[in-house]
Amino acid sequence: xxxxxxxxxxxxxxxxxxxxxxxxxxxxxxxxxxxxxxxxxxxxxxxxxxxxxxxxxxxxxxxxxxxxxxxxxxxxxxxxxxxxxxxxxxxxxxxxxxxxxxxxxxxxxxxxxxxxxxxxxxxxxxxxxxxxxxxxxxxxxxxxxxxxxxxxxxxxxxxxxxxxxxxxxxxxxxxxxxxxxxxxxxxxxxxxxxxxxxxxxxxxxxxxxxxxxxxxxxxxxxxxxxxxxxxxxxxxxxxxxxxxxxxxxxxxxxxxxxxxxxxxxxxxxxxxxxxxxxxxxxxxxxxxxx
Amino acid sequence: xxxxxxxxxxxxxxxxxxxxxxxxxxxxxxxxxxxxxxxxxxxxxxxxxxxxxxxxxxxxxxxxxxxxxxxxxxxxxxxxxxxxxxxxxxxxxxxxxxxxxxxxxxxxxxxxxxxxxxxxxxxxxxxxxxxxxxxxxxxxxxxxxxxxxxxxxxxxxxxxxxxxxxxxxxxxxxxxxxxxxxxxxxxxxxxxxxxxxxxxxxxxxxxxxxxxxxxxxxxxxxxxxxxxxxxxxxxxxxxxxxxxxxxxxxxxxxxxxxxxxxxxxxxxxxxxxxxxxxxxxxxxxxxxxxxxxxxxxxxxxxxxxxxxxxxxxxxxxxxxxxxxxxx
Lengths: 290, 327
Known about the structure:
B: disordered C terminus
């Protein structure tokens, strides 16, 4: 029983991380129709940049949350730059977008290997969250519970942003019908940059927040990208609720799969995605088929 | 027109006599690699170029056939049986892959194929009892068709060349066939094709199967060439590399993927000897080609050639497709 409960909490924690990663992916996909294959790399870059400051590799040792903020902003700016300089030139050309984002992800992976080397970096949990929480006989690390709380807060913030603000209304309009949005005077191209930066920043934030659990290593990007992909296909593109539910489902399947069927963990992970594709191609909460 | 025929003839003679003017096992092996990767790229070009369906999981399908060949050989069957069985397994895998991914087009297709490719990679990597995991599978021998042992680099090159020429011929016939024309129609105007009475889905499905056949054939050559297969072959990087071959050479052209294959294999084998950071360079090449020459090398240089042709009379003895002679 304890085993199952611990596994369940771990699954929700992982689901929370996945939500931070895939919310941006889903928005970019939904709004810009760009398969952003750099998303795993943005996660990894965020993790590495954050880890650099947490560990104090450059001689500057920062508070964990400050480092996370710094990494988030840095990667968000990188994302905005990539969108402005490269992706902007390729509207509607999916083959080109795929190649450019893949090319960038190869460059990012090799760059990380060059700068930070091949050994995994371990990131310490922030000092205030090192303890454990006890619920009767059950013991959970505080940090894992904190991740769940953070994910929920970010989810609510994003929901408020999308549903209650002018910017959010513009983004929703862009997701539903970019041409119409343009006609009524929304600067969709500016939205693209904002959404891309937002998505990149969220991915980087997930990377550094996940650092103490996953550690930071080369190949992290390749591990995370397919998961984000599954979440988005499962939940439906451009849907926040879809990303949230999809992330939790994938978090559970991934953790339980790893524990029960290690040889087929990957296969089990992709089964629900295939089922959704067959039965409900627009995803659980998506409005249109991609 | 006669100039085109002449250029192709020169390229053909150059390919047939290659082991005589490009001596050295290393170079002959590089040529073999270019040829079987060209078959793979031709296969992907059927979908990405002529069908407008960008598949990012083709390395997974490639891997299925390669693993099947290795595994069936390990069970103790002969080469002929293993090759035929592996080709059939590859085609069955392609059929499933097509049924799942053809539910969508555009980005949806890319995403689904990417996910399917990752599943296959995950299986190869994790299902250790079947695939050997990271240790991979090794093949002990190469086959001996009609008594010619393929263990030697030159004979393997000629075997690959024969298969390559057959594949190219099949590709030429396909492109000029009604099915090929219909496929290009579904790429450009799917709704109009539907209104005209074409079964769009079925056309795409047949194209997938043809693409799968070429992929499987190249995978058999690959696995006999390296005599080893590991999960790395199925990784996203490999799928992306083949896509780069297709796009850099010119998607939707007959010769483009061959030129692209020559470019990628040469840069990869030669440059990786000098620089350790090969992946960084590969990524940079991806970005540069998309930004600078989006149409690909073959259409791009053909256009330049035509422009030069119109301005002044051509000198005698120049050959159009310089890159063909290189392969």
